Amino acid sequence: MRLALLALAAGLVSLRFLPSLPPGWILALLAVVSPVFLLSRAFVLSFFLLGFTWACFSAQNALDDRLAPALDGRTLWVTGNVVGLPEQTADGVRFELANARSRRAELPSLLRLSWRGGPDLKAGEHLRVAVTLRAPHGLVNPVGFDYEAWLLARRIGATGTVKAGEQVAAPGGLNGLRDSIRQALFEQDAYGREGALAALIVGDGSGLSSADWTLLQATGTIHLMVISGQHITMVAGLVYGLFFGMARLGLWPRQWPWIPCACIAAFLAALTYGLMAGFQVPVRRACVMVALVLLWRWRFRQLGIVLPLLVALNVVLLAEPLAVLQPGFWLSFGAVSILALAFVGRLGALGMLATAWRAQWTVTVGLLPFLLILGLPVSLSSPIANLIAVPWVGVGIVPIALLGCLLLPIPWVGSSLLWLAGFLLELLFRILAVIADAIPVWLPVHVPWWGWLLGGLGAICLLLPAGTPGRLLGGILLLPLFFAPAEEVPEGQAHVWMFDVGQGQAVLIRTRDHALVYDAGPRFGDFDLGARVVLPNARALGVHRLDELLLSHADADHAGGALALHSTMPILRVSSGEPEALPAVLNAQSCGGESWRWNGVTFTTWRSPAPSDSNASSCVLRVEANGESVLLTGDVDMATEKRLIESGWNLPSRWLQAAHHGSKTGTGDPFLDAVAPAVALISRGKHNGYGHPHPDVIGRLNAHGVEVLDTAATGAIHIQLGTHGKAILTRRDHVVFWR
C-alpha cells in the first residue's frame, strides 16, 4: 500500500520538472496502458503512470484555458463575478474575476485584473467591465518569484487592466460575508494593526505593508500572517484541547466517548476557519491534512504516521496537481515530514520548551535544502523568532482576535478584544524587528546540484535520533550549502547580466575580483525591483559587495532600486549622471571622463557636457574585455548621441544597449554607423504603456543587420564578454512547460 501511494505521488510530483507536456495522444495511450500493469507485478509502475497522466492532463487543461494569442492586448467588454477579497493598492484595486464572459470572444474562466482609480469593490459582486487583456507573463531571471507559474497554479488564464465598468448585481454568498468581516475589521481601532488582523481572520494580506512582509520574511515568520496549515491546525488543536481538558477534569459526560466528539468538533472548527479564509489551495491542503490526522487519532493510530502523510499528499495532488508549482506546497509538506522524522518514535519525553526548540531547529535545518533549491532567502533568525512568535500568535493573538470578531455585535467587548490583539501584534512586530537587525536574512550563492544533494543528505543525518552512527557527519555534508563556490570569471573577461526588471534597467558586470551595477532597476511605490530582482540575483551569482554602483541618471526606472542595494550590500562608490537628483544618503559622485581597469577589463565613462534634460544626462559606460566590448547608454537621445560621436570617443562595440528601452528618441542611424553593433539589447516591460520598442528603432536595427535581444521576450541576458560567444538567454535556456 505504501509503495503504491509513493509511486502515485512520484508521478504527480514529476509534473514540476517537465520542460514540456507530452502530446495528447501519448497521454491517451498512457491512460489506456497504465491500468494493464495493475494486473501484473508492475503495479508500482501503474500507479506512477496514473499519477503522471492525471497531472499532465490537468496541467494541459489549465494551459488551454489561457488567453488566445489573438486577444493579447485587445480591449473587450467582459462580465463576471468578483471572487476572493479585492486588494486595495496605492492607486486602485486588484481583483479576480471568475466566470468571465464576452460576446466577442471565448475567454479564460478566471482573470486577474487591476483597476486604477477603481471603486471599492466587494467580494461576490457581478461586474461588467471594459478590460485590456494580457496573456500571462512574468519576469524571468536566474532566481526569483515565478509569476507565470503562480498564475498557472491558481488557474488564472489572463491578466488585464480595467478601463471602465459598472456593477450589475450586489455581492452575496460566503465571499460577501468575508468582505463584510474584513470591512468591519478595517473600521476598528486595533493599534494600527487592522491589516494584520484581517490577514489572520479572513486571509487578506493586502493590509500589510511591504516593510511588514520584508520583516516577516527576514525572520522566517511569514507563515504566521498567511492563513496556512499552522493556523488551521492551531484552531483544530484549540478545540480538541478543550474537549481533552473537559475529559481530564471529569466535566465530560461519561456515556459519550470524548475522542470522536473532539475529532469531529475540531475538524468542523478547522473547516469553518478555512472557509472564512477563502478556502484557497493552501487552506484546502491544510484541511485535508488535519482531517487525516484527526481520523488517524480516532481510529488508525496503529498504522503509524507515514501512511497518513502519503494519503494526504496524494489527496492534495489529485485534487490540484498544479500545487507542485507553488513553493508553499514543498515547504508545508516538507515541514510536516521533518517534524514527523524528528518526533515520531523517539524515546523519552521532552519538556514544553525543549519540544518547541527541537521543532524550530529541526524545521530550520530540514527546510534549508528546500529554500535553496527554490531560490528563497534563508532566515538564520528563524528558530529564535518562531520560538517567540508561534506561541505568541497561536495561543495569544489568534484566539483573542477570533473571539473579538465573534463578539463585535456586543458594544465595547469585541472592539476591546481586537484592540488587545492589535496591541500584541504591534509588540510582536517590534520584537521581530530587533531580531532581524541582530541576525540579517541570508541570500546564499546559487548551489550546484551536487552541493544540494550533499546538503540534503546532511540535513537528513542531523535529524536522525541522537546516537545514530554517522549523525554528526551531517554537519560536514551541510557545508556545501553555506560555502558553495560562485561562478568563476577568468582573468581578462567580464560576465555581463542584463536582468529582466520590466520597464526599467539593471545590469550587473563582474570581473574576477570586482563587481559593478549599472542602473538598479525600477521602483514604483512599494514595488522595488532592486530588492526583488537585482539584490537576490547578485547574491546568487556570488556578489557580496559592489565596487561601483553607476546610475545612468535619476529616473525611477533606472535608479529606483538603488536604496535597496545601498541598505543591504556594501558599496564602495556611487556615481551618476545626475548625482544631485539622487537621495543624499547615496553620496553619489558625478560620472564621466573616467577610465580604469579591473582584472584586465577596461571601463570607460562619458557624459554630455550640456545635457538638455534628465535623459540626456545619462552616464554612458563602455566595457571592453579581450577585444570585445559592450556599450551601455542609459536613456540618451539622438542629440546626445551626436555629441558622443563628435567627442571622438571610442565607440565601436559588439553589444549595444538600445537607448531609452528602444524609444524612437534614440538609437539613430549615425550612432549605429559609429558603433557598428552586432547585437542590440533592449530592457523593457512587456505591454508597457510607452510602445517600447518603437517600430522605427526596430526598423533601423534591422536595416543595419543588428540582432535584437529583448528582455521581455528572452528574460535575463547573460554575456560572457571576452569570449566572443553568443548570449545566454534565461527564458530559452531554462525551459519549463508553463512558459
From TrEMBL:
InterPro entries: ComA-like_MBL, ComEC_N, Competence_ComEC/Rec2, Competence_DNA_uptake, DUF4131, Metallo-B-lactamas, RibonucZ/Hydroxyglut_hydro. It is found in: Cell membrane. The chain crosses the membrane at residues 25-57, 232-251, 257-279, 300-323, 329-349, 361-378, 384-410, 417-443, 449-467. The keyword Cell membrane applies. It comes from the Bacteria. The keyword Cell membrane applies. PANTHER family: DNA INTERNALIZATION/COMPETENCE PROTEIN COMEC/REC2, RECOMBINATION PROTEIN 2. This is DNA internalization-related competence protein ComEC/Rec2. It comes from Pseudomonas matsuisoli.
